Amino acid sequence: MPVITYRQALNDALSEELTRDENVVIMGEEVAEYNGAYKITEGLWKKFGSKRVVDTPISEAGFIGLGVGAAMMGMRPVMELMFWSFAYVAFDQIINNAGCVRYMSGGLINLPLVIRGPANGGTNVGATHSHTPENFLANTPGLKVVCPATPYDAKGLMKTAIRDNDPVCFMENTLLYGDQGEVPEEEYLIPLGVADIKREGADVSLIGHGRAVITALNAAHRLAEEFDISAEVIDLRSIRPLDEETILDSVRKTHRAVLVDENKPFCGVSSQIATLIQEKAFDDLDAPVQRVCSLDAPAIYSPPVEALQLPTVDRIIQKVLAIS
Amino acid sequence: MLRIRRFEQASLKLYQQGKMGGFLHLYIGQESVAVGTCSLLGPNDHAITAYRDHGHALVVGMSMNECMAELLGKATGCSKGKGGSMHFFAPDKNYWGGHGIVAGQTPLGLGIAYALKYKGLKGCCLTYLGDGAVNQGVFHESLNLAALWNIPVVYVIENNQYSMGTSLARSSAIKACLAERAEAYAMDWDIVNGENLYEVRAKTFDAMERAREKCRPSILEIDTYRYYGHSVADANAKVYRKAEEIEFYKQNHDPIMLWEKRLKDEGVADDALIEKIDNEAKAEAAASVAFAEDSPFPELEDIFTDIYHEVDMGTEAGRTGRHFFND
Ligand SMILES: Cc1ncc(C[n+]2csc(CCOP(=O)(O)OP(=O)(O)O)c2C)c(N)n1
To answer: Would you place residue B175 in the very low, low, confident or very high pLDDT band (cuts 50, 70, 90)?
Structure first.
């Protein structure tokens, strides 16, 4: 199987879907002539032209709203946010329009829209550029939220997201763009709402999404090497829909859960998973559910400190050891 | 126009009887705007508006029954009781709502028009907003995009002089003319006397043609007036405007009265015909009240439908993964 980067996997997915369906258009700041701020759309403008790959002015509310209107008319716009942090100026369009129109119309209107771009911290760009708004978005019934961790998942999930008839918030991670992984040449789709067991284990379940999965895998490796603890790593892949069964099955098997989450702890994604586990698998637990989240402060700039603000392998190991 | 007025008068009565929840933003006094503009919609033309949406809904051809039932939150309503007064939709009639956030619909109209252009359809989207909405940032982003990309959108500002209790003079830096903001984006604009139906239609037609033929967006500012409070629940309805002002408009500028007079002057209609039309409108409104009252409310389980397409369709993807929490 060819080995490609997460960035290339996304680029391939966009390119294939642009080819497959002429209702797909890509829009955003610098996506066309500049080839994308993070080069996810590299070469697409050249290949598909200005009608299909469109540079927008810096006006997130305006162009995301335009995408919502175009999706109401049956187009399948894929809108790039240069950073998910900038979604906040378009939140009215994302929450009130994309998230609610289908419901308020009694199901008369579908909204096949993808909003995508990099999220998360770790790149030393300060508080305003490092947000992880998946908890805000997943809090809105009507939106779907997808956070791939590997090149294989990025491609398969993106293709599904574009074909989905509901608005999908697709959250990539800047620090994963260069990661490499095997991606088949033949077409494949990954359904939303199906978690992936990235590593089988028997003693504890490490559960996360996005880059936290990679951190959890590194922790699992060390737990096995240094402490002889067998950790299972569950990659949620999508926050909404959520694959509750895979989470619960894993916890029922290992009887311990440590949630790893680059989201903030307060009302974050991990809060939801912890609630789920205590509601539906309480009797299976041998220890309280533990969480390793981003430290509850705005993202700090200082590079070595920011690295510690995010979930680290060491913090995961400490939590696991505390309940083992 | 009579249909809108009689429908809304009937709805007001229901509201006062406590049969309706939430807001009821009445359009009474502004009827000529929806009638004059929406009546020009051709097969490839579309319309979208804000929360004062009953008038447009009836003109594009929605039935009083489905609209009244929606007001009462009934399952037979146009949005199955999920939208309410502010959220009427009829995509089959190219009518896209019904939106509750001031100016939030302005980029949606742009997107609808963008899709028309993308698909090579000669049409346009009439996108309505109020005089208060012109001060929202997203409206200005929309204007910039419309002009920059030559999108066939027509922004129709229904200038009824008030945004809730705030008069134009207290809300807009450029007071004399709202449409003039188009100049900043090198867009065409015009001012329209809303009580003159011929003028509304002529100027709207020009703007729609500009959009359809040349993909040039426009702003039309249509002067109009509302008789009731911002919503029926508006506690200050009689505070921010003097009763004499409202009375003056009713006596001298009522669009229905003026239109009836014109039809009679031109020999198109007489009192008998107008009365017949009015009686039909009243009967239709009364029937819609009966229909709405007789209709069932949605079931509690209906809360969980119409949120995700694939869940409603019972697809494989809808069956895997949990879309709803704590169910
Ligand atoms: C973003 C936002 N802010 C405030 C409100 C509350 N609100 C609803 S309507 C309204 C007045 C809007 O006036 P205008 O745009 O002139 O429309 P009109 O009511 O005159 O039709 C306000 C302040 C809202 N719905 N959305």
So the answer is: confident
Q: Spell B185-220 as b/e; 16+ CB within 10 A means b.
A: bebbbbbbebbbbebbbebbeebbebbbeebbbbbb
Contact call for B89 and A241, based on CB within 8 A: no
Give the pLDDT score at B176: 86
- Note whether A135 contacts B: Cβ–Cβ < 8 A: no
- Residue B160 CA, ligand 1 centroid: distance in Å: 12
Nearest to B44 by CA among B121, B120, B112: B121
Residue entry with tokens 């989240």: A293
Low-confidence ranges of chain A (pLDDT < 70): none
CB-CB under 8 Å, B138 with A93:
yes
| Nearest protein CA to atom 6 of ligand 1, as residue | B102
Phi-psi region of A294 (alpha: psi -120 to 50; beta: other; left: phi over 0): beta
Q: Is A63 exposed, middle or buried (0-12, 13-18, 19+ CB in 10 A)?
A: buried
CA dihedral of A165, A49, B144, B127, whole degrees rounded to 10: -40
For chain A, the first-to-last Cα distance in angstroms comes to 38
Amino acid at A252: R
Q: Do B107 and A104 touch (CB under 8 A)?
A: no
**Is A262 tagged catalytic?**
no
User: pLDDT tens across A86-104, in order?
Assistant: 999 999 999 999 999 999 9
The Cα angle at residue B63 between residues A65 and B114, in degrees rounded to 5: 25
> CA angle, corner B90, sides to B87 and B94, nearest 5?
120
Mutate-to-test residue for ligand 1 from B33, B53, B102, highest number of ligand atoms within 8 A of CB? B102
From the list A129, A131, A209, A255, the catalytic residue is A129
Cβ-based neighbour number of residue B184 at 10 Å: 11
Interface test with B, best of A105, A137, A145 (most B CBs within 10 A): A105
Smallest CA–CA distance, residue A283 to chain B, in Å, is 18
DSSP line for A53-70 = EEE--S-HHHHHHHHHHH
> Residues with beta carbon inside 6 Å of ligand 1?
B 52, 100-102, 130-133, 158, 160, 162-164, 230
Q: In the numeric block, which tokens belong to residue A241?
A: 């829909």
**How far is B22 from B10, CA to CA, in rounded Å?**
16
So what's the ipTM on this one? 0.90
Q: What is the mean pLDDT of residues B58-64?
A: 98
User: A1 CA distance to ligand 1 centroid (A)?
Assistant: 56
